[in-house]
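Researcher: Next sequence.
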Amino acid sequence: MPLSRRERAALCDLLDHVGSAAPTLCAGWTSFELVAHLVLREAAPLSAAGVVVPRLEGFTARAMRRLQRRHGFTALVEQLRSGPPRWSPMRAERVDQRVNAMELFVHHEDLRRAQPTWEPRELTAAGEDVLWTRLGSAGRLLARRSPTGLELVRSDRAGVARIKPGEPTLVVRGRPGELALFVHGRAAVAQVEYDGDPAARAHP
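Model: Next structure:
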Protein backbone atom coordinates (compact mmCIF):
# COMPACT_ATOMS: atom_id res chain seq x y z
CA MET A 1 0.00 0.00 0.00
CA PRO A 2 1.41 3.44 -0.89
CA LEU A 3 2.63 5.62 1.97
CA SER A 4 -0.09 8.20 1.35
CA ARG A 5 -2.83 5.61 1.86
CA ARG A 6 -1.16 4.07 4.91
CA GLU A 7 -0.78 7.46 6.56
CA ARG A 8 -4.35 8.42 5.72
CA ALA A 9 -5.74 5.24 7.28
CA ALA A 10 -3.53 5.45 10.37
CA LEU A 11 -4.30 9.13 10.91
CA CYS A 12 -8.05 8.49 10.67
CA ASP A 13 -7.77 5.60 13.12
CA LEU A 14 -5.97 7.88 15.56
CA LEU A 15 -8.53 10.65 15.07
CA ASP A 16 -11.28 8.18 15.93
CA HIS A 17 -9.35 7.12 19.01
CA VAL A 18 -8.49 10.55 20.45
CA GLY A 19 -11.73 12.34 19.58
CA SER A 20 -12.44 15.90 18.54
CA ALA A 21 -10.73 17.84 21.34
CA ALA A 22 -7.26 16.27 21.27
CA PRO A 23 -4.23 18.59 21.10
CA THR A 24 -2.01 18.78 18.03
CA LEU A 25 1.33 20.40 17.25
CA CYS A 26 -0.45 22.88 14.95
CA ALA A 27 -0.78 26.08 16.98
CA GLY A 28 -4.38 26.74 17.93
CA TRP A 29 -5.74 23.57 16.34
CA THR A 30 -7.35 20.61 18.03
CA SER A 31 -7.91 17.34 16.19
CA PHE A 32 -11.22 18.81 14.95
CA GLU A 33 -9.49 21.73 13.21
CA LEU A 34 -6.84 19.38 11.84
CA VAL A 35 -9.31 17.06 10.11
CA ALA A 36 -11.31 20.05 8.84
CA HIS A 37 -8.13 21.46 7.28
CA LEU A 38 -7.29 18.18 5.56
CA VAL A 39 -10.79 17.70 4.18
CA LEU A 40 -10.94 21.32 2.97
CA ARG A 41 -7.54 20.98 1.32
CA GLU A 42 -8.77 18.07 -0.81
CA ALA A 43 -12.38 19.13 -1.40
CA ALA A 44 -11.85 22.88 -1.94
CA PRO A 45 -8.13 23.59 -2.43
CA LEU A 46 -8.60 27.31 -3.08
CA SER A 47 -10.47 27.70 0.21
CA ALA A 48 -7.50 26.15 2.03
CA ALA A 49 -5.01 28.66 0.59
CA GLY A 50 -4.89 30.68 3.80
CA VAL A 51 -2.58 28.08 5.32
CA VAL A 52 0.20 29.33 3.03
CA VAL A 53 -1.07 32.82 2.07
CA PRO A 54 -1.34 34.99 5.20
CA ARG A 55 -3.81 37.44 3.63
CA LEU A 56 -6.27 34.57 3.17
CA GLU A 57 -6.04 33.18 6.70
CA GLY A 58 -9.43 34.56 7.72
CA PHE A 59 -11.11 33.20 4.60
CA THR A 60 -9.71 29.73 5.21
CA ALA A 61 -10.57 29.78 8.92
CA ARG A 62 -14.19 30.61 8.08
CA ALA A 63 -14.34 27.82 5.51
CA MET A 64 -13.01 25.35 8.08
CA ARG A 65 -15.58 26.45 10.66
CA ARG A 66 -18.38 25.98 8.12
CA LEU A 67 -17.19 22.43 7.48
CA GLN A 68 -17.08 21.74 11.21
CA ARG A 69 -20.61 23.04 11.77
CA ARG A 70 -22.07 21.36 8.70
CA HIS A 71 -20.58 17.90 9.08
CA GLY A 72 -19.25 17.38 12.59
CA PHE A 73 -16.09 15.56 13.62
CA THR A 74 -17.06 11.95 12.90
CA ALA A 75 -18.31 12.67 9.39
CA LEU A 76 -15.19 14.67 8.56
CA VAL A 77 -12.97 11.80 9.68
CA GLU A 78 -14.92 9.43 7.44
CA GLN A 79 -14.68 11.87 4.54
CA LEU A 80 -10.91 12.06 5.00
CA ARG A 81 -10.71 8.28 5.24
CA SER A 82 -12.59 7.84 1.95
CA GLY A 83 -9.96 9.86 0.11
CA PRO A 84 -10.11 12.85 -2.24
CA PRO A 85 -13.37 13.61 -4.10
CA ARG A 86 -14.05 11.60 -7.26
CA TRP A 87 -13.38 14.61 -9.46
CA SER A 88 -9.98 15.30 -7.91
CA PRO A 89 -6.75 14.41 -9.73
CA MET A 90 -5.55 13.22 -6.32
CA ARG A 91 -7.70 10.11 -6.77
CA ALA A 92 -4.93 8.82 -9.05
CA GLU A 93 -2.41 6.86 -6.98
CA ARG A 94 0.64 8.57 -8.44
CA VAL A 95 -0.76 12.05 -7.83
CA ASP A 96 -1.99 11.09 -4.37
CA GLN A 97 1.47 9.85 -3.43
CA ARG A 98 3.17 12.96 -4.77
CA VAL A 99 0.75 15.48 -3.26
CA ASN A 100 -0.43 13.80 -0.07
CA ALA A 101 2.25 11.46 1.31
CA MET A 102 4.25 14.23 2.99
CA GLU A 103 1.18 16.20 4.09
CA LEU A 104 -0.52 13.23 5.71
CA PHE A 105 2.69 12.00 7.34
CA VAL A 106 3.46 15.37 8.91
CA HIS A 107 -0.09 15.89 10.18
CA HIS A 108 -0.26 12.32 11.47
CA GLU A 109 2.85 13.10 13.51
CA ASP A 110 1.33 16.45 14.56
CA LEU A 111 -1.43 14.49 16.23
CA ARG A 112 0.69 11.57 17.46
CA ARG A 113 3.45 13.63 19.06
CA ALA A 114 1.05 15.97 20.81
CA GLN A 115 -0.29 13.06 22.86
CA PRO A 116 1.37 12.41 26.24
CA THR A 117 1.93 8.69 25.57
CA TRP A 118 3.38 8.94 22.06
CA GLU A 119 6.28 6.68 21.14
CA PRO A 120 8.63 6.70 18.15
CA ARG A 121 7.67 4.50 15.21
CA GLU A 122 9.60 3.16 12.26
CA LEU A 123 8.50 3.71 8.70
CA THR A 124 9.28 1.14 6.05
CA ALA A 125 12.39 1.74 3.95
CA ALA A 126 10.12 2.44 0.98
CA GLY A 127 8.17 4.97 3.03
CA GLU A 128 11.35 6.77 4.05
CA ASP A 129 12.41 6.86 0.40
CA VAL A 130 9.12 8.47 -0.62
CA LEU A 131 9.58 11.24 1.95
CA TRP A 132 13.21 11.72 0.91
CA THR A 133 12.22 12.28 -2.72
CA ARG A 134 9.85 15.04 -1.61
CA LEU A 135 12.24 16.69 0.84
CA GLY A 136 14.24 18.55 -1.76
CA SER A 137 11.38 20.58 -3.22
CA ALA A 138 9.52 20.91 0.09
CA GLY A 139 12.67 21.92 1.93
CA ARG A 140 13.63 24.57 -0.62
CA LEU A 141 10.17 26.10 -0.44
CA LEU A 142 9.97 26.07 3.34
CA ALA A 143 13.55 27.24 3.93
CA ARG A 144 13.55 30.05 1.39
CA ARG A 145 13.51 32.73 4.11
CA SER A 146 15.99 31.01 6.39
CA PRO A 147 18.93 33.32 7.21
CA THR A 148 21.39 30.40 7.07
CA GLY A 149 22.34 27.64 4.67
CA LEU A 150 20.74 24.23 5.16
CA GLU A 151 21.90 20.73 4.31
CA LEU A 152 19.98 17.54 5.11
CA VAL A 153 21.78 14.22 5.56
CA ARG A 154 20.09 10.83 5.76
CA SER A 155 21.11 8.72 8.75
CA ASP A 156 19.59 5.44 7.52
CA ARG A 157 21.51 5.28 4.22
CA ALA A 158 23.62 7.49 1.97
CA GLY A 159 21.89 10.67 0.93
CA VAL A 160 22.55 14.41 1.07
CA ALA A 161 20.19 17.21 0.07
CA ARG A 162 21.63 20.72 -0.16
CA ILE A 163 18.49 22.68 0.48
CA LYS A 164 19.80 26.23 0.62
CA PRO A 165 23.27 27.67 0.05
CA GLY A 166 24.61 30.12 2.56
CA GLU A 167 26.98 30.72 5.44
CA PRO A 168 26.84 29.59 8.10
CA THR A 169 25.33 26.28 7.02
CA LEU A 170 23.31 24.12 9.36
CA VAL A 171 23.68 20.38 8.72
CA VAL A 172 20.77 18.27 9.98
CA ARG A 173 21.03 14.47 10.18
CA GLY A 174 18.20 12.02 10.63
CA ARG A 175 15.85 9.59 8.96
CA PRO A 176 13.81 11.21 6.18
CA GLY A 177 10.63 11.26 8.27
CA GLU A 178 12.38 13.17 11.03
CA LEU A 179 14.00 15.53 8.54
CA ALA A 180 10.55 16.14 7.06
CA LEU A 181 9.30 17.22 10.47
CA PHE A 182 12.30 19.54 10.85
CA VAL A 183 11.78 21.34 7.54
CA HIS A 184 8.07 21.71 8.32
CA GLY A 185 8.86 23.65 11.49
CA ARG A 186 8.63 20.80 14.00
CA ALA A 187 12.26 21.02 15.13
CA ALA A 188 11.24 20.73 18.79
CA VAL A 189 9.98 17.17 18.28
CA ALA A 190 12.12 16.00 15.34
CA GLN A 191 14.63 13.31 16.29
CA VAL A 192 17.60 14.76 14.44
CA GLU A 193 21.21 15.72 15.09
CA TYR A 194 22.83 19.02 14.19
CA ASP A 195 26.20 20.27 13.00
CA GLY A 196 26.77 23.96 12.50
CA ASP A 197 25.42 27.18 13.94
CA PRO A 198 23.19 26.40 16.98
CA ALA A 199 21.26 29.63 16.41
CA ALA A 200 19.99 28.24 13.11
CA ARG A 201 18.30 25.23 14.66
CA ALA A 202 14.90 26.87 14.90
CA HIS A 203 14.84 27.28 11.12
CA PRO A 204 13.40 26.90 8.61
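Model: The beta strands are 149-154, 160-164, 169-174, 193-195. The first helix runs from residue 3 to 18.
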